[in-house]
Specification:
Blueprint: H1 15-20, E1 31-38, E2 45-46, E3 54-56, H2 58-70, E4 75-81, H3 98-109, E5 114-119, E6 133-134, E7 137-138, H4 140-157, E8 161-164, H5 171-181, E9 188-195, H6 202-208, H7 228-240, E10 244-248, H8 254-263, E11 268-272, H9 274-285, H10 291-305, E12 309-312, H11 315-321
Parallel strand pairs: 1-3, 1-4, 1-12, 4-5, 5-8, 8-9, 9-10, 10-11, 11-12
Antiparallel strand pairs: 2-3, 6-7
Helix pairs in contact: 2-3, 3-4, 4-5, 8-10
The structure holds ligand PBG.
Ligand PBG is lined by residues 118, 120, 122, 130, 165, 201, 204-205, 210, 273-274.
Length: 323
C-alpha cells in the first residue's frame, strides 16, 4: 500500500509525536571526555587549534574530570604531555609520569570516575612516531614490548581501562598478558582496533605535540579506503582479549561503525576526533551553522550508526545541552 494511504508526515506533526517515534537518543552516559594533561605548565592553557579545550596540570585535570563526571559523563580518556622525550618514550613507563600522577589524583578526588589511559608512544618519543624506530622503520615487536610495560604502569597507577592507540600488531595480546602477570586482571582494554591514518587528527597533534618528525603513520594506521580490513583488525583484537573495540575517526567512518555493530557482540566505541570537533567550532565561529545543532546532529549520527560509546571533546557541552 502506498500514498495516499501511507503518509509518513503523520508522525512528524508535533514535537511530542516526533519524540514518541524517535529512534536514537543521546545521553551523557554514552560519552567519554578526553583530557590533556601537561607536565610543562602550572595553570590550564587553551589549545589554539581546539577552541574550548585546554591542557591541564594534573591537579586541575582531576578537577576537570570531576566537573564532567558531575554532569553525568562516566569517564575521561587521558593524554599526557611529558617534559622529557627520548627515542624509546621511556618517560611513559614511570610511576611518577604525568599520566600516572593524574590517574592517582583523579582517584583521590573521586574514585567513581572511570579513568581510561591512552597507551601510545607518540607523545613520549622525540621523533613523534607511535613506536621504536629500527632501521628507519617502526619496529612492531620492540614497540609492543614497551606498550605492554606502559599499560601495566598505567594500571598500577589505578587506570580502570587502558586504550592502546598505536596500531601495532599483537599489542592487545601482549598488554593482556602483561596486565595479568602483574596482577591487573580486572583492568580492561579498550582497543583502537580500526584506527585510520586520518587528516582529522591535525588539531590533536598540536594539542599533544605528537606530530611525527619525519614520514607519516601510513605504515601502521589503516588506509581510509579499506573496510574489510577494519573487520579483520577488530576480530583480531577481540581474539586477543579486547573488552571494547573502537573505530576512529567517527564521522567519515560511519559505515565501519555500522558494520562493526552488526558483526560483533561487544561494546563498540567511536572517537569523534579533534578535526571533527574543530570543524564544528570554526564553522560556528564563522556563523556557518549553530554549534549545538551541528554537534548534536553529528553525534546522533554516530550513535545511530551503532556506537555504544562516543569519545568526544563536545561531551561536556552535550551533557549541558541535554539537561
Ligand atoms: C595517539 C593518538 C592520536 C589520537 C589519539 N591518540 C593521534 C595520532 O594518531 O596521530 C587522535 C585523537 C584526535 O584527533 O582527537 N596515537
Amino acid at each position: 500500500m502506498s500514498f495516499p494511504i501511507n503518509r509518513p508526515r503523520r508522525l512528524r506533526r508535533s514535537d511530542a509525536i516526533r519524540r514518541l517515534v524517535r529512534e536514537t537518543r543521546l545521553h551523557p552516559s554514552d560519552f567519554i571526555y578526553p583530557v590533556f594533561v601537561s607536565e610543562l605548565i602550572d595553570r590550564p592553557e587553551p589549545i589554539e587549534a581546539m577552541p574550548g579545550i585546554f591542557r591541564y596540570p594534573y591537579k586541575d585535570a582531576a578537577k576537570e574530570a570531576d566537573r564532567v563526571f558531575k554532569l553525568g559523563i562516566p569517564g575521561v580518556l587521558l593524554f599526557g604531555i611529558p617534559t622529557h622525550k627520548d627515542a624509546t618514550g621511556s618517560e611513559s613507563l614511570k610511576q611518577d609520569g604525568i599520566v600516572q600522577n593524574t590517574i592517582r589524583e583523579i582517584k583521590n578526588v573521586n574514585p567513581e570516575i572511570v579513568v581510561i589511559a591512552d597507551v601510545c608512544l607518540c607523545e613520549y618519543t622525540d621523533h613523534g612516531h607511535c613506536g621504536i624506530i629500527n632501521n628507519g622503520e617502526v619496529d612492531n615487536d620492540a614497540t609492543v614490548y614497551i606498550l605492554a610495560r606502559q599499560a601495566a604502569s598505567l594500571a598500577a597507577a589505578g587506570a580502570d581501562i587502558v586504550a592502546p592507540s598505536d596500531m601495532m600488531d599483537g599489542r592487545v595480546k601482549a598488554i593482556r598478558a602483561d596486565l595479568d602477570k602483574n596482577g591487573f586482571k580486572n583492568t580492561a582494554i579498550m582497543s583502537y582496533s580500526a584506527k585510520y591514518c586520518s587528516a582529522f587528527y591535525g588539531p590533536f597533534r598540536e594539542a599533544a605535540g605528537s606530530a611525527p618528525q619525519f614520514g607519516n603513520r601510513k605504515g601502521y594506521q589503516m588506509d581510509p579506503a579499506n573496510a574489510t580490513e577494519a573487520i579483520k583488525e577488530i576480530s583480531y583484537d577481540i581474539d586477543e582479549g579486547a573488552d571494547i573495540v573502537m573505530v576512529k575517526p567517527a564521522l567519515a567512518y560511519l559505515d565501519i561503525i555500522a558494520k562493526a555493530k552488526s558483526r560483533f557482540d561487544i561494546p563498540i566505541a567511536a572517537y569523534n576526533v579533534s578535526g571533527e570537533y574543530s570543524m564544528v567550532k570554526l564553522a560556528a565561529q564563522a556563523e556557518l551553522g549553530d554549534e549545538k545543532l551541528l554537534a548534536l546532529e553529528i553525534l546522533t549520527s554516530i550513535k545511530r550508526a551503532g556506537a555504544d560509546i562516543i569519545i568526544s571533546y563536545h561531551a561536556a557541552d552535550v551533557a549541558k545541552w541535554l539537561e
